[in-house]
Amino acid sequence: xxxxxxxxxxxxxxxxxxxxxxxxxxxxxxxxxxxxxxxxxxxxxxxxxxxxxxxxxxxxxxxxxxxxxxxxxxxxxxxxxxxxxxxxxxxxxxxxxxxxxxxxxxxxxxxxxxxxxxxxxxxxxxxxxxxxxxxxxxxxxxxxxxxxxxxxxxxxxxxxxxxxxxxxxxxxxxxxxxxxxxxxxxxxxxxxxxxxxxxxxxxxxxxxxxxxxxxxx
Length: 217
Fold this sequence. Notes:
Blueprint: E1 17-25, H1 30-33, E2 39-49, E3 52-61, H2 71-78, E4 85-91, E5 98-106, H3 108-116, E6 121-131, E7 134-141, E8 149-155, E9 163-164, E10 168-171, H4 180-185, H5 192-202, E11 214-215
Parallel strand pairs: 9-11
Antiparallel strand pairs: 1-5, 1-8, 1-10, 2-3, 2-6, 3-4, 4-5, 6-7, 7-8
Helix pairs in contact: 2-3
């Protein structure tokens, strides 16, 4: 299993930067179902404009929570969950798979209480798995953004020469519409048909500036 603790391999001296590539998925792979401890994540966006965002997140075990509940109710439920973690994050615009992100842990009761009172929310179940040489996060979005499925790979340095599994439809690393801060204000079903038309016209696309893309591995 792949866990958040593995996201950054070591202190590379690169500070508060994340190196990530993101993909639209056609389905959740079997590896996701094998994750014994998927996480529920609820995120509130205090500010989001021009690629910049301020985010409050609460994350905890799915357990027996009702995932059909409103995101605000899920956030409230997580405030008292065992092993819940609250964070405050500040993000800058993404550029070629690199994005500034400073994230600090805060009291989960505070994080959950802020999220429960916010209107711009994202709720998702996150599965984690090692696939080949990389740890993947596989997100199943809930509530207004269902049935969106997104997978991402993060490394301590730029994500080059990536093995891209068959369940990836197309890369969305540089499509700001798939940023959580955008989805919080513009749920995926409201523009999914427009995206589908674009896909039929243009087909799949993958970044060509980060080494060799290897498919079906």
